[in-house]
Hints:
Blueprint: E1 6-9, E2 13-17, E3 23-27, E4 32-33, H1 35-49, E5 55-60, E6 66-67, H2 69-77, H3 79-84, E7 85-91, H4 95-108, E8 114-117, H5 120-128
Amino acid sequence: MSIKARSAEHALATIEIDRDGVLLFRYRDGIYLDEAGARDIVACGASLAGEDAPMPTVVLVSRVKGVSKGARDFFSKSAENWALSSRVAMVVRSPTARMVANFFLGLNKPEHPTRLFNDEASARAWLLQ
């Protein structure tokens, strides 16, 4: 798939779509995601993706300080997030981020295929297979 690359800046993250059709969320350092922030970031991603959604999605979570239960529920079960992401690769680069991501996956059971990776290249390879 080859689409037009584009990006958007949000208070919580940089959101990018590359020419392979991969949606990427690069969260800012030390943020705490509550449900309102989760809804807003997904809406921003949906606006950027437009008719190309749903898209394979990479989420860089290592910089996130915490995520509220409302945000976790929204990310894992909402129709809005389901419409945006076809499958999700979460990239974790620290033991703490891995623990938070495993906690999310264990408790929230996302509706779409979701896996953890140590690096972005492995995450992209899984998404594009």
